[in-house]
Write a structure and sequence with these properties.
The chain has 664 residues and is mainly beta. It contains six helices and 40 strands. It is elongated.
């Protein structure tokens, strides 16, 4: 008879929890001397001591919602009243599983990743925190803290994104999905990428290039400066743009592989209706390239004179979207008509650069001339005070326009005397993120692509065609929705009037689309399942953009999964009918230990009567090691075990009981 004591580590402090040879749930003990086990022996578990972490289960049906907009509990408005919609969130479980059990630390890690995936705003993504709340005195588990934050931009927080943006391979033809390589050469210049039109005629499919890597323009003061002087005519003194046709703008990154996208292969929305666009000339078909906002150098209808036009995506009159001209002139603006780009010499505007500045929802467009003077073209905050109406103003850059990237196009043969015009991006600022493999079309960080991939394009269409985006609704009235910019306090910038809100149970009065939210109990927010600054948020005194939400009560974390001890390198045979195959299981641990505990440190199990399993050895076994693992009923390792595990085995000669029958 032999008593075998096995354990995973020599001490309970310095250990690698996930090691294949010393994990609490899977370990290997090597013997210095060979152990001989006589023929026809059997083995049983004599006792087990282990440490079981608090665990909980997450399912793919666990649902909450996140919303970024006005604090609706405070304003008493609904989610559909602006350019936002609550975002459905589910735990980021492993692929192809419907549920997973997690230790406390793994639960926190999964929820941290999940709440960030739930808020794919480029200046927020990766900055939300989820952590255990512990009692300040006893350090006992007291629930969870959810911390919302944003970039809080200061100059050091947004970067001139040269390393991630400036390069020939970082841009591609907008019609590449249709096999078009384009007729623009992109080169890497010291100040940024240069786009040079190749010689010859260029149509809208060949001359349009868009970013395919990098990060979107920051909403916290992000700036894109574009030098267009290389697209001037070389005739006369060269300050005008005679016969030069080009576009510079910003466009959302979309998935070109969506099964529902009728425009797949093109850099266009499924519901973009080019034929409904207005304000373009009739020569080059500029409306065939989609933008969210674009500045064009193009002839006016019926005239050869080059004009500066601004177009933006708006709702069409046919259930989709189109490009509608922004009448940035008149209404008391400095510009009484479209800016004339054809004139040269003293009478010309000497347009050199275009500047796009994104402050929260407000996109401002300016131009700089050869003298370095910056002149406003579109600025909602200023223009509204001068009498501008809806048709004169740029719409808010809302949820479907969070991820905006540069897009540039050339048309025709080029300007007079300049057959290879060029345009340079000379400045571009973004929040450079390394969280969760950030990529331009990663659905985790791109809301538009996420819904495209889910084939929920109708949700996107609904947002883009709301009345605030419809120029046919009150075009000559002051907009019903006023976009907001940035506010600053203690050196920290914040997206003004925008708060992250978590909806853990249905809140249909304010958020009609939150049916199915069911995480209030799991996270301990049953008393107040709507997490908002006006309900239970605590603001950070040093950061006006940072709020902490603390569980009302500590949610009960259950550990109901069964545990089984396996002796993996011996010859015994058990059968796990639940998974339909042989097993090395020796012992089923009861839920409660000998002290009636099911969680915590030093759980001790000792069966009142040991159950022996035959080894089936007809000869002597020579044993040099013991491989012990502890699994769940599905034979998966019980990774919620931590620290030191001790399993004591008892091996003996098989006890063959013979019943003798005879007379009493």
């Amino acid at each position: 008879m032999s008593l075998i004591i096995t354990s995973n580590i020599k001490d309970e402090v310095n250990f690698n929890r996930f090691s294949n040879y010393e994990a609490a749930y899977n370990y290997h003990n090597a013997l210095k001397q060979t152990l001989q086990i006589e023929p026809d022996s059997e083995v049983a578990v004599q006792s087990v001591k282990l440490n079981k972490s608090s665990t909980t289960t997450l399912k793919n049906t666990d649902t909450w919602y996140e919303f970024f907009g006005k604090d609706l509990n405070s304003t008493k408005t609904k989610e559909f009243d602006g350019p936002y919609r609550s975002i459905q969130c589910n735990p980021a479980l492993a692929s192809n599983v419907s549920r997973q059990n997690f230790s406390m630390e793994d639960f926190v890690a999964v929820m941290q990743k999940s709440v960030n995936i739930g808020m794919p705003h480029p200046d927020i993504y990766g900055k939300l925190d989820f952590k255990v709340n512990r009692d300040a005195t006893t350090n006992a588990y007291a629930g969870f803290n959810i911390v919302s934050d944003e970039l809080g931009a200061v100059p050091a927080n947004i970067s001139t994104d040269t390393a991630n943006f400036n390069g020939a391979g970082f841009f591609e033809c907008a019609f590449k999905g249709e096999g078009e390589d384009g007729k623009i050469t992109v080169s890497n210049e010291a100040s940024g990428p240069r786009f040079t039109k190749q010689t010859g005629e260029t149509d809208f499919t060949e001359g349009c290039f868009v970013g395919n890597v990098g990060f979107p323009l920051s909403h916290e003061g992000g700036v894109m400066k574009v030098n267009v002087a290389g697209a001037r005519s070389t005739n006369s003194d060269g300050t005008g743009y005679g016969n030069s046709t080009w576009q510079v703008g910003l466009s959302r990154a979309i998935s070109r592989e969506s099964k529902t996208n009728a425009n797949a292969g093109k850099d266009q929305l499924e519901y973009y209706q080019a034929h409904k666009s207005t304000g373009f000339g009739d020569v080059f078909g500029l409306e065939n390239n989609f933008y969210d906002i674009v500045v064009s150098c193009e002839a006016a209808e019926g005239s050869p004179q080059k004009k500066l036009k601004v177009h933006q995506m708006t709702a069409s009159d046919a259930g989709g979207v189109c490009l509608t001209e922004v009448e940035y002139f008149g209404f008391g603006h400095t510009h009484t008509n479209r800016i004339d780009l054809s004139a040269t010499g003293a009478t010309g505007v000497k347009l050199k650069e275009l500047h796009f500045t994104l402050n929260n929802e407000i996109l401002q467009i300016d131009y700089e001339n050869d003298s370095g003077t910056v002149i406003n073209i579109c600025n909602f905050t200023v223009d509204i005070t001068k009498g501008a109406k809806k048709k004169n103003l740029i719409l808010p850059m809302g949820q479907t326009r969070w991820n905006l990237y540069p897009k540039i196009a050339f048309y025709g043969t080029g300007p007079s005397g300049n057959s290879t015009p060029s345009i340079d991006i000379i400045e571009y600022t973004a929040n450079v993120s390394t969280f969760n493999n950030y990529a331009i079309r990663n659905p985790d960080n791109n809301y538009y692509v996420r819904l495209e991939n889910r084939e929920e394009v109708e949700v996107l269409r609904e947002i883009d065609t709301r009345s605030l985006n419809d120029m046919l609704v009150d075009p000559t009235e002051i907009p019903a929705y006023t976009p907001t910019g940035l506010i600053s306090d203690k050196g920290v910038q914040k997206l003004a009037d925008r708060q992250i809100q978590y909806i853990l149970a249905p809140s249909l009065e304010l958020f009609p689309s939150t049916i199915g939210a069911n995480m209030a109990s799991t996270l301990g927010f049953e008393q107040q399942p709507l997490l908002a600054p006006s309900t239970n948020g605590v603001v950070d005194g040093a950061r006006i953009c940072k709020y902490t939400y603390t569980s009302d009560t500590a949610p009960l974390l259950l550990s109901t999964a069964s545990l089984f001890v396996r002796l993996d390198n011996f010859t015994q045979n058990s059968v796990n009918a639940g998974v339909g195959r042989p097993s090395k299981i020796l012992y089923h641990l009861p839920r409660f230990d000998t002290s009636n505990r099911d969680l915590g440190q030093g759980l001790f199990y000792q069966p009142p009567e040991m159950v022996y399993v035959k080894l089936g050895n007809t000869d002597t076994l020579y044993v040099n090691s013991f491989d012990i693992s502890i699994s769940n009923d599905n034979e998966q390792l019980a990774t919620d075990l931590v620290g030191k595990t001790i399993v004591v085995l008892h091996i003996r000669k098989s006890q063959n009981v013979m019943r003798l029958e005879g007379k009493a």
